[in-house]
């Protein structure tokens, strides 16, 4: 879900700026740093002395519940379901706050998709055991204990995964059908 269905970075930018008391210029610096980040793990984009604050922001109450959807994400996922695709929202709770994070992801789902989507959410720290045709994820390499997952990893385009080659890439939800047609047999 994070940075694939929801604008995780946008929430982080807002909350981190508030947490450090950033003025407008500093807030713009933070936004540029995050929107152009090189590392998937957010804390690796910060100096060592800033990392504790980064983790506090992620673990702050409401962080995951208040996330906003990326443009077209909800509409695309609902359209897939209408067309017979068995859509599952596979998401990993953040290790700094696994329980609250999981609960808040359900809150997000209820608010934006409705209660009929509850059974479509799979919360797991190891996505390699989930069965499916395609996994749309922003993480450059999705790894776990299953050596050969059943799904094809489709990258949701982000600055920190642009060095990855040889994978299908979804740059915006409006293009979902063009990218996923083969994998989903549409």
How would you describe what is shown here?
The radius of gyration is 17 Å and the shape is globular. The protein has two domains: 8-59, no CATH class; 73-184, HAD superfamily/HAD-like (Rossmann fold). α1 (8-19) packs antiparallel against α2 and α1 crosses α3 (51-59). It has helices at 8-19, 24-35, 51-59, 73-82, 98-112, 176-184; strands at 89-91, 121-123, 134-137, 152-156, 169-170. The protein has 186 residues and is α/β, with parallel strands linked by helices. It is 36% helix and 9% strand. InterPro entries: 5'(3')-deoxyribonucleotidase (IPR010708), HAD-like_sf (IPR036412), HAD_sf (IPR023214). One of its GO terms (molecular function) is 5'-nucleotidase activity. The active site is at residue 2.
Task: Chart the SSEs and their pairings.
Layout: H1 8-19, H2 24-35, H3 51-59, H4 73-82, E1 89-91, H5 98-112, E2 121-123, E3 134-137, E4 152-156, E5 169-170, H6 176-184
Query: Helices and strands: which structural class?
Result: alpha/beta
User: Mind telling me the CATH class of the largest domain?
Assistant: Alpha Beta
Number of strands: 5
Shape: globular
Strand order of the largest sheet: 3-4-5
Summarize the structure.
This protein has 186 residues and is an alpha/beta fold.
Any descriptors?
5'-nucleotidase activity, single chain, 5 strands, 3-stranded parallel beta sheet, HAD_sf, alpha/beta, HAD-like_sf, 6 helices, 9% strand, two-stranded parallel ribbon, globular, Rossmann fold, 186 residues
